[in-house]
Design a protein that fits this description.
The structure is a homodimer of 201-residue chains.
Chain A (H helix, E strand, L loop, with lengths): L1 H28 L6 H8 L3 H7 L3 H25 L4 H18 L1 H8 L2 H4 L2 H4 L2 H19 L7 H21 L7 H19 L2
Helix pairs in contact in A: 1-2, 2-3, 4-5, 4-6, 4-9, 5-6, 5-9, 5-11, 9-10, 10-11
Chain A binds a DNA duplex (30 and 30 nucleotides) through helix 3.
Protein name (chains A, B): Putative TetR family transcriptional regulator
Keywords (chains A, B): DNA-binding, Transcription, Transcription regulation
Pfam families (chains A, B): TetR_C_33, TetR_N
Chain lengths: 201, 201
DNA sequence: GTGAATTACCTAACACTGTTAGCAAAATTA
DNA sequence: TAATTTTGCTAACAGTGTTAGGTAATTCAC
């Protein structure tokens, strides 16, 4: 039954076409500019065809969210692998996170923008758990190495994420700031050093 | 010429009515649900009347942004005033910031949400400068007290803001997290302690 | 090969957005 | 009282997400 397969393949092709076109629009005009009608126009299909492949607009965005988390966790895992010392690992993770956010502004904005309030990302995107484990592990190691039983790793994980996410959002959202990239990197590095020192007691 | 004055007063009244109604909607249904037509319906005027008082929807949101920054900076200034020690001041500021964000979720979301990318807030809202000075001053004091000339206060200010803004956004946006308020406070306190310790060398 | 069933796809609409042009009625001024 | 300004409205434009319903092509069973 080659026909059914071909049909499935064609369906997949249209689906990918939708995603590719949508992504192009996002990259060129931002999330705000993305519209079902524009996608339909661009792929030369009528509007309802898109709804044959995605339940609604949110579903398309969610797809990109998944992609984003996939890329991010991969990058973070790679960065971590390059070091053995947990402190160095944390710094490398922070650096990779930072890099990802600025090399993939569109992804980052979607991943941590308004979308989060709409859908419970944790259930839909399992990569978020991967991210947590990735960061928590070196934190736990440092805490163990320094015999710190007064704090738990979960708390520290949140602090870690807050520092870096806060920095990224401020830099991403606040267009008016006139700080150079080098200074930004220094801020991140300084914050990370402080965080790790505080872990070590 | 009492007539002209009365007219001006009436204009002001309608303007306030628009803002009050809009605020009520935002509080009850969130920013997303706010629409010019709904406001017009609620105040029992036609749609174009709203455009006599505000250039566009953005202008209404900006008004709330201004209000939000006004309240925030006031709260922060009050918190700072209660202490003399710059470290204690920073902690108090962080605490007040935290409190504001969660007692005024709507304001915070607007202030640091998508709005920022749309308009250059710094030029439109002078309070942002007040906020920066408020935080920078105790930071500079601590740095001076410990004879630290290797870092500048501006960098540290960004770190401070990042930590707290990151924490708030993660807590505000990520609905899926099951962390209790007490733990959240501990995270903030821990991060602040780390930040200040890192300031002191 | 022919008829039935399925699939693919489109047109057109619904119910919303923000925004504005143009007009009628009311209020103020001369 | 007549002219002018102000006030507020209706109705439209150009978008948005979403869906109901119908047509034409394709595939399947006989």
């Amino acid at each position: 039954m080659g026909i059914a397969e071909r049909k499935l393949r064609q369906r997949e092709e249209v689906r990918n076409l939708i995603l590719e076109t949508a992504w192009e629009m996002v990259r060129e005009e931002g999330w705000q500019a993305l519209s079902i009608r524009k996608i339909a126009d661009a792929i030369e299909y009528s509007v309802p065809v898109i709804y044959d492949h995605f339940e609604n607009k949110e579903a398309i965005l969610l797809e990109f969210g998944k992609q984003g988390f996939g890329i991010l966790t991969k990058k973070l895992a790679q960065a971590k692998k390059k070091h053995d010392d947990p402190g160095a690992q944390l710094k490398a993770i922070a650096d990779a996170y930072w890099q990802f956010a600025f090399n993939n502004k569109e992804y980052y904005q979607l991943m941590f923008g308004l979308n989060m309030q709409a859908c419970e990302t944790e259930k839909v995107i399992p990569e978020r758990g991967t991210f947590r484990r990735l960061v928590s592990e070196p934190i736990e190691k440092i805490l163990n190495n320094h015999h710190r039983t007064d704090v738990n790793a979960c708390m520290k994980y949140h602090t870690f994420w807050s520092i870096i996410h806060g920095l990224v959002s401020i830099k991403t959202l606040a267009t008016g700031t006139e700080i150079s990239d080098e200074v930004n990197k220094m801020v991140l590095d300084d914050a990370m050093t402080g965080f790790i020192k505080n872990l070590e007691r």
